[in-house]
Amino acid sequence: MNQYECQQDQHNNLTCSYICIEPFCKLKRISCFQCFQDKDSHESHQGLAIDEFQQKVKFRLQNLNQLKDALDLTKTLFNQFINNQIEFIRNHILEGKKYLDDNNLYKIRFINDYFISEQDNRAPYVQEQLFKIRKKIKRINEFISNIKCMDTKLVTKEINDIKIKAMDCIKRKYVGHYKDAIQILNKGLKEIPTCCSLISLKCTCLININKIDSAQRLINYAFQINCYDETVLLLLAKFMYLKNQYGKCLEICELSFEPNQYLAYFKLDSLKQLQETQKMLAFQKECEKKFGYQFYEQYLKHQNIKH
Ligand SMILES: [Zn+2]
Ligand SMILES: [Zn+2]
């Protein structure tokens, strides 16, 4: 990375190592630390270190590339589907017209399956499905154009209410309590489909009713939305661990910005499985500094609960 020195007076040629991320800022975005203290500059604006910014860009690019592949695939499948339907319809319309003409009808030696009533189901069925697809596309467009207003306090309150209701179901432990919780969460996700905390909670329910594949797909989706969300990281670490992918599990544990005791447990578990005794002991010491001297005791207790 090139090192640029700040050209502002009295900024002592400090290195410009931050990007201002204030949405309405009109100033030069790349700035030095002092720029964020100055009244005439980015004072009270929010800044990101350049490497953090680039990390975000990298993450966004990954997502965009995945979306591009998905769009290409969908386009191919859609084109195939629509071409097949159009061909089927064109042939059957021509055929049908022949049978309507009395003079013609008696001359036709071979009448195909026009009289089979099951064939009547096809056109309404496909039409109904196309209606649903159009409705879905409309909803996607509406969601995309409203994405900006999602981050309001009202939404936060709404999300919390849904979480409390779902947790209530989960805690009560009656038959079908996880399924009821999922229903509540689905209502919320219909309104706010990208809410990571709701998705994580739904995943936990899905795991508990043994719908592992759905849970895995959903948690990968949440990870694409926010790869730093702690609940998402915890679930993903758990999945990797259960699949014996200990290296991957370690990578996920490293992603968390904040120290998280449960992620630390997974890291220790994975290091144990990889027989990295030295690293394990070093990390254990590190954790005792971060989480207190009882860390290892708590870890062992947690192990007992799990098994
Ligand atoms: Zn400066
Ligand atoms: Zn600014």
Overview of the molecule:
This protein has helices at residues 50-100, 102-105, 119-146, 153-172, 177-191, 196-208, 212-225, 230-242, 246-254, 261-273, 277-291, 295-306; strands at 18-20, 30-31, 47-49. By secondary structure, the chain is mainly alpha-helical. The chain has three domains: 71-147; 152-226, Serine Threonine Protein Phosphatase 5, Tetratricopeptide repeat (Alpha Horseshoe), CATH 1.25.40; 230-307. The radius of gyration is 29 Å and the shape is extended. The structure holds zinc ion (ZN) (2 copies).
- How much helix, percentage-wise, in residues? 55-70%
The major β-sheet equals:
3 strands, antiparallel
* Tally of helical runs: 12
Query: Structurally, how many domains make up the residues?
Result: 3
Which percent range describes the beta-strand content? Answer: under 5%
Shape: extended
Succession of helices and strands: EEEHHHHHHHHHHHH
Head-to-tail CA distance between termini: 48 Å
The radius of gyration over CA amounts to: 29 Å
